[in-house]
Amino acid sequence: MKDFISQASDLICGYPLFIVLIGGGLFLFFYSRMVPFRYFGRSIEALRAKDSSDGEGGQITSWQALCSAIAATIGMGNIAGVAIALSIGGPGAIFWMWVSTVVGMATKFFEGTLASMYRGRDSEGNLQGGPMYMIVEGLGKNWRPLALFFSAFGCIGTLCLMQPNQLVEAIDAIFFIPRGIEPTFWLHLAMGVAITVITAVVILGGIERIAAMASKLVPAMIVMYFLLVGYILIRNYEMIPSVFASIFEGAFSMKAGIGGIIGIALLGARRAALINEAGTGTASMMHGSSRNSEPVREGFVAMIAPLTDSGLVCTLTSLAILSTGYTAGEGMKGLQIAIDAFGKAIPGVGEYLLLAILFIFAFSTMFSYSYYGMKCTSFLFGAKYGKYYNYFYLALLVVASVMSLPTVVGIIDIAYAFMAFPTMYTLLRLAPKAKAALAKYIEENPKRK
Question: Given this structure, which CATH class describes domain 2-440?
Answer without folding.
Answer: mainly alpha
